[in-house]
Specification:
Elements: E1 3-7, E2 10-14, H1 23-30, E3 49-52, E4 55-58, E5 71-73, H2 86-93, H3 103-116, H4 122-128, H5 139-153
Parallel strand pairs: 1-5
Antiparallel strand pairs: 1-2, 3-4, 3-5
The structure holds FE2/S2 (inorganic) cluster (FES) (2 copies).
Amino acid sequence: MRVTCTVNGKQQVVDDVWEGESLLYLLRERVGLPGSKNACEQGACGSCTVYLDDLPTCACLVAAGQVQGREIRTVEGLADGDQLGPIQEAFVECGAIQCGFCTPGMVMQAHDLLERVDNPSDTQIREALAGNLCRCTGYEKILDAVRLAASRRAGSIATSPRPVSL
Ligand code: FES
Ligand code: FES
């Protein structure tokens, strides 16, 4: 079947989509956007999180045929060309990335949280990221990154939570 959808503001027409194909496969293998990661393919880890019509969604759980006519935004769509978005920058600055497999999903969920909540508490950050697993267990630095992005977004003077050694 043919699927037509909008990805990061650009219309995509994808032919020969098979019935069992996931949105994640479509994005990575057909549209050429490998940012969303395939870690569990069961909706358990959150590494494949994308916006589907503005709602964070596990792309591995959505059939490609279901996105006909819909809008998708991936982690690549949070950057402006080569310029990382503020949350992506915060992850880099805080050293919140180890293997990087969970990072796209974490960044997407953090983005959604900061769109909804100006100055989230630690509890709100933890709740927002509760569905995203980091096998490298770098959770503290991930929390630091979200705090940093939130404080910058709020316009306050942000200080790096702690020195980062990479
Ligand atoms: S790959 Fe989709 S939730 Fe893990
Ligand atoms: S950085 Fe490796 S899974 Fe999170």
